[in-house]
Amino acid sequence: MENPSPEKSINLFHCLNELKDHSLVQEVQTYLSRGGDRHLFGARLSPAQWSALVFMMLNSEEELDEFDVWKYDPSEECLLRLLPVVTASRKALLFNCGITDEGCAALAAALRSNLSSHLRELNLNLNEPRDSGVKQLSALLEHPHCKLEKVELEHCSITDEGCAALASALRSNPSSHLRELNLNQNNLGDSGVKQLSALLEDPHCKLEKLELSDCRITDERCAALASALRSNPSSHLRELNLNDNKPGDSGVKQLSALLEDPHCTLEKVELYNCNIREEGCAALASALRSNPSSHLRELNLNYNKLGDSGVKQLSAVLEDPHCKLEKLELDSCSITDKGCTALASALRSNPSSHLRELNLNHNKPGNSGVKQLSALLEDPHCKLEILE
């Protein structure tokens, strides 16, 4: 016999409640009163008990701002049973709880059928929806009434097929509210990245943050993304995460051409462990120096082999009074005392510098480099707040 739908169970619970039968409430409260998180972990609730829990949560005086499945039972069953609560919440934290394409389909259907849903942020990181589940979510994002602003799908076994479905859905919905999309640690493939590029090229696209860390982005795929953004002067994109990919110097040169464009609105670029060397670093530095109207505020170049020669190029950027960088990360970049001296000298010579955070961890500044950096911090004009 099939379990009744959440709606039917809730109706049944309403009847019991009107008859002043509070036994279900008491049973559920017993589970919820257990200490720590995961109150329902290992519990075998009946459909009626699940419905009692839904009723209690929907009628609670507490505002349903955030639903965290880990506070109850990190499982797909918990999601399916508490769907009415999820759709009534503003943020849903459903990461790492075994959600498959079935759970994604049910969630998408519930949100499509509830035009008054409050859900704005959805975190499905570390689940297994795969392409089939992502297609269901794409159908939701295609819906003109969908109000989602942030979707996280990190490490969800998505390939180019699922990525293409997402991009196509967003392109076909000019009224989409989506501003942040996290696709980290998925194998998007050439066609998937091409679809994303086509999305970024669309003047109706309102994405402000795109995360593609560890997505096998090569120099060609990086070039496609950069070209799309260059061709869209009305782009809203502010943050681009390409950490742990392999664009190399050739891909970074394409990104540099983007940063050189006066219409580029990027404020934060992350290129951690991207196989960048002196040549790529020089291209980035040249682009920033030649664009006094650059919006870039944060640049992450950690774990690249920039060396002292690459850092000297960046120092010339920091020396420029037009440079608006506020955070620069150079952890593990093969920097010695010469590079540290160049950085310190550049910042001392630019009293209007905006730099507030500088990360030089895991380099080899030596005693002379440390002295130069110490002298910089003692300078009354230095605005650095964090030096690592």
TrEMBL record:
<dbReference type="Pfam" id="PF13516">
    <property type="entry name" value="LRR_6"/>
</dbReference>
<keyword id="KW-0433">Leucine-rich repeat</keyword>
<dbReference type="InterPro" id="IPR051261">
    <property type="entry name" value="NLR"/>
</dbReference>
<keyword id="KW-0677">Repeat</keyword>
<dbReference type="InterPro" id="IPR001611">
    <property type="entry name" value="Leu-rich_rpt"/>
</dbReference>
<protein>
    <recommendedName>
        <fullName>NACHT LRR and PYD domain-containing protein</fullName>
    </recommendedName>
</protein>
<dbReference type="InterPro" id="IPR032675">
    <property type="entry name" value="LRR_dom_sf"/>
</dbReference>
